[in-house]
# Entry
Amino acid sequence: MSSQSIPEQLRKSLERHMEESDLHDDEEMAQIMSKLSDLSAKVAAAKAKVLAKRKTG
# Structure
């Protein structure tokens, strides 16, 4: 299982498709990538919070 969140996996997959010219880097894609980055950060923060709670029991 990957240690990356689903939003992060999706963002990286979209980046690969843009590199291969399957997708175009336009305004819509920039907005999608920005939203995925924000969501990925929120997932990481939530994960850190859960792990911290587990440690304090």
